[in-house]
Write a structure and sequence with these properties.
single chain; alpha/beta; Rossmann fold; six-stranded parallel sheet
């Protein structure tokens, strides 16, 4: 089959012919219709050391929309031909930038009644945004929020989720060219982080109090900005790295609370962890089906174009979502 491979020895991507994956008893083989691109795919050279065995045939690609082509011997819930959507395990070799992918049958959800391309744009970014606001921050209409990276995939979905939860003050950072887009998504205030004092603007908007919740979807210093913009006993979710309270202004005296979230950790921490990931997927997918969540910018590319797109993604200037289609 045709696939995009990553060579850990040279940190390079190559589109080539490799064998169709062999599946285990609890796996399914999926004929990939579409696969979303995410920063974690582009940053594989930074986390490759975490994988016990990674060779030159490693295929990345986590967010997969497709049809089940074959079942492992122990799979009972699914059948050949079922359309499915999943967020893959980054520690498994057979990802979605290929004609076929392999996935644990217990980590699938039924495909939503939308196109394969639209579906594949949602898991990593959308399910993460949903878990951040609902499971971690437990945000309600009484809250206000600062979202660092409002024009990206997670940020765009987080803005929409915040509005659905009834938050009246939704502040998001972005560059100048994305201010209109972020406002159209539902942000009540869009801050140009390149030219404005983010913390100062947040304090001005909130009459000196700060926001009750925050989300850093960008890194590497945005956790500091978000934390410093929190009000007394505010809560923050960090998505990019680990929190570092010693760097935050008055973190102890303000009684701040910090959370970390890795969506893919649901694959590696038992059945309950996997179910939390899938529950977020089902809830978010229902909103996508109903048209209550929109993909702000959706660009499609071919498999051959994925390497260049991943390299560009490392510059952290991606707007919305990019999805590979098997054409």
């Amino acid at each position: 089959m045709k696939a995009l491979t990553f060579n850990p020895a040279t940190d390079s991507f190559l589109v080539r012919e490799i064998p169709i994956p062999k599946i285990g008893a609890h796996d399914v083989l999926v004929k990939v219709e579409a696969c979303g691109l995410n920063p974690v795919d582009a940053k594989i050279s930074l986390w490759k050391y975490m994988v016990p065995v990674m060779n030159e045939f490693w295929t990345p690609g986590l967010d997969v929309s497709g049809r089940i082509e074959a079942l492992g011997d122990a799979v009972r819930r699914w059948k050949v031909g079922d359309r499915v959507l999943y967020h893959g395990d980054m520690f498994r070799a057979h990802g979605g930038f290929a004609e076929y992918g392999a996935q644990d049958a217990a980590a699938l959800i039924a495909h939503p009644h939308v196109s394969a391309t639209l579906a594949a744009s949602t898991p990593c970014a959308g399910w993460t945004a949903w878990r951040a606001l609902n499971d971690k921050l437990r945000a309600t209409a009484a809250d206000s929020i600062l979202i660092a990276g409002g024009a990206g995939g997670v940020g765009g979905f987080a803005i929409q989720t915040a509005k659905l939860l009834g938050l009246k003050t939704v502040i998001a950072t972005c560059c100048a060219k994305n201010l209109t887009q972020v406002s159209q998504l539902g942000a009540t205030h869009a801050i140009n982080y390149q030219e404005e004092d983010v913390v100062g603007r947040v304090l001005a908007i909130t009459e000196g109090l700060g926001v009750s919740t925050g989300l850093d979807a960008v890194g590497p210093i945005n956790d500091i900005l978000v934390a410093n913009a929190l009000t007394f006993e505010g809560r923050m979710v960090e998505l990019v790295s680990v929190v570092r309270p010693e760097r935050y202004q008055d973190a102890f005296m303000k009684g701040l609370t910090f959370h970390q979230l890795s969506l893919g950790a649901g694959h590696r921490n038992g059945r309950a962890a996997k179910e939390r990931m899938l529950a977020a997927g089902r809830a978010f997918t229902e909103l996508v089906e109903l048209g209550r969540i929109k993909v702000p910018v959706l660009d499609t590319i071919s498999l051959d174009e994925v390497p260049a797109a991943l390299r560009e993604m490392l510059k952290q200037r991606t707007r919305g979502k990019i999805v590979m289609e098997n054409r």
